[in-house]
Specification:
This protein is an alpha+beta fold. It has 15 helices and nine strands. The protein folds into three domains: 58 residues, no CATH class; 93 residues, DNA polymerase, domain 1 (Orthogonal Bundle); 186 residues, Orthogonal Bundle (hpI Integrase, Chain A). 51% of the residues lie in helices and 12% in strands. The strands form three sheets. It has a four-stranded antiparallel beta sheet, with helices on one face. Strands 5-6-9 form a three-stranded antiparallel beta sheet, with no helix packed on it. A hairpin with a 6-residue loop joins strand 3 and strand 4. Helix 2 crosses helix 6 and helix 8 packs antiparallel against helix 10. The longest helix is centred in the last third of the chain and has 25 residues.
Length: 385
């Protein structure tokens, strides 16, 4: 005999044995109905009491299905069925890489239902010896997001990531060129085969993945502008593709170019055309403004190690990242008195607050200049009178 309630079922097995059965929803991957099952020894009244308690837990989202699913198995399914449909391809690749690299080896074989906060905390603490706070926090955000789905699907009652203590955010130091250093850099870049790439980067403030994806169709010489509307993505396992989904809405932007830079781009285009004719069918016609001798996109790492570092050494400028060119463009414009909104739009930042927080150190230095201007405006004129 069986007694059915709205969300649960009580079925007698023997004289003193009862089975509790509660519907938990459907599996997102297979569509199969999922149930919580438990056998209770005792009278029907005892079993009914347990069933009521479990139903109450189910209403609060605290009732979980007993499963042998491992962390790695769950995360693999989450990546393919949830994350892949929601995020850009580049973001998905990043999620997959970071979970494979930093989670599977240590925690992947643990059952999802058995995973505890202290285990995750121990793993993060061990990661501190090798990896930055930024990496740990990023891995955590992916892991936590995935396990939120495990809670929703009632594989676990609470997300163990919620109670982990993370390393404090470390604000990355931004190295930039002074006006004199920028001049020295550009002078040294003239002798490098990719010198025009670095000059373009410094004068536009674009991201490497943006200017390395720039096509000639994006450059309008008549208007004197360049439009950024895609990024170059290199896959971890090899190969590349253009991502048409920009980082933010404002990342898709058109900016004016200095006249001298436009002139140099014309010369660069002519030289590139001559190279294409000379190479013939061996040249990949990707229509890229900046490309290898075979017409392929330039690898970020190769550009940095084989060219950028050499230019820095020649100009005696010390250590800088390729991103220093972007940051230098912003800080040089700020120091010259350019409007913050103009700089934000040139960089493609989502909002002006991001620009303000990123380059606050420059603004601090400009406060002294502002005081000098006020001194001149209100006091020097009086002294002269």
């Amino acid at each position: 005999m069986a007694n059915t309630r709205k969300a649960g079922q009580l079925t007698q097995r023997t004289n003193d044995s009862w089975q509790i059965r509660i519907f938990l929803g459907r599996d997102e991957k297979t569509g199969k109905r999922r149930y919580y099952n438990e056998t209770v020894q005792g009278t029907k009244k005892d079993a009914q009491k347990v069933l009521n308690e479990k139903l109450s837990s189910a209403d609060k989202g605290k009732l979980v299905e007993k499963t042998s699913l491992t962390v790695q198995e769950f995360l693999t399914v989450w990546l393919q069925t949830i994350a892949k449909a929601r995020v850009r391809e580049a973001t998905f690749d990043s999620y997959e890489y970071h979970l494979t690299q930093y989670v599977y080896e240590k925690l992947g074989n643990r059952k999802v239902s058995d995973l505890r906060t202290f285990e995750i905390q121990k793993h993060y603490n061990e990661m501190k010896a090798k990896y930055s706070a930024r990496t740990i926090r990023y891995v955590h955000s992916i892991f936590k997001n995935a396990l939120n789905k495990a809670v929703e699907q009632r594989y676990i009652s609470d997300n163990p990531c919620n109670f982990v203590e993370l390393p404090k955010k470390q604000k990355r130091e931004i190295n930039v060129f002074s006006p004199d250093e920028a001049q020295r850099f550009l002078e040294a870049a003239k002798t490098d085969k990719h010198g025009i790439v670095f000059e373009f980067a410094l004068l536009t403030g674009a991201r490497p993945e943006e200017y390395l994806a720039l096509k000639w169709s994006d450059v309008e010489f008549a208007r004197g502008t360049a439009t950024f509307q895609r990024t170059l993505i290199w896959r971890k396992g090899g190969g590349w593709y253009f991502d048409e989904e920009m980082k933010t809405t404002l990342s898709r932007r058109t900016i004016p170019l200095p006249k001298t830079l436009l002139s140099k781009l014309r010369e660069h285009r002519i030289k590139q055309a001559e190279k294409i004719l000379k190479t013939g069918e061996g040249y990949e016609r990707n229509n890229l403004v900046f490309a290898t001798d075979e017409g392929q996109p330039i690898r970020y790492g190769n550009l940095t190690k084989r060219h950028f570092h050499g230019i820095l050494k020649t100009a005696e400028l010390g250590h800088h990242r390729l991103y220093s060119l972007r940051h230098s463009c912003a800080t040089l414009l700020l120091a010259s008195g350019e409007n913050m909104k103009v700089i934000q739009e040139r960089l493609g930042h989502a909002d002006v607050n991001l620009t303000l927080s990123t380059y606050s150190h420059v603004l601090d230095g400009m406060q002294a200049q502002a005081s000098d201007k006020l001194e001149s405006m209100f006091y020097q004129s009086r002294k002269a009178g």
